[in-house]
Write a structure and sequence with these properties.
Blueprint (H helix, E strand, L loop, with lengths): L1 E6 H11 L3 H8 L5 E6 L5 E7 L3 H22 L1
Parallel strand pairs: 1-2
Antiparallel strand pairs: 2-3
Length: 78
């Protein structure tokens, strides 16, 4: 499995500048092989990782689950 390391701050800043979502970027990276995407802070410490599936359909399921969990977490903060 290919491992891709991404500096989180720079990545999310670029997404804002390009007005695109991380899921759009992930979809472009799908090539039939799973990839481990590792998000790092500025000190190269792992913040979180995501296993990018080999198929867009599975990624879409992940996106829906992520959105649901994120919304649930936001609702508990209010």
């Amino acid at each position: 499995m290919q491992k891709i390391e991404i500096k989180a701050d720079q990545f999310f800043e670029l997404l804002k500048l390009k007005d695109t979502s991380m899921w759009d970027i992930f979809a472009q990276m799908i090539d039939g092989n799973e990839k481990e995407i590792v998000f790092l802070d500025n000190e190269d410490k792992i913040l979180f990782n995501y296993i990018l599936p080999s198929e867009k359909e599975k990624m879409e399921e992940d996106r829906k689950e992520f959105s649901k969990e994120f919304a649930d977490k936001l609702s508990t903060l209010n």
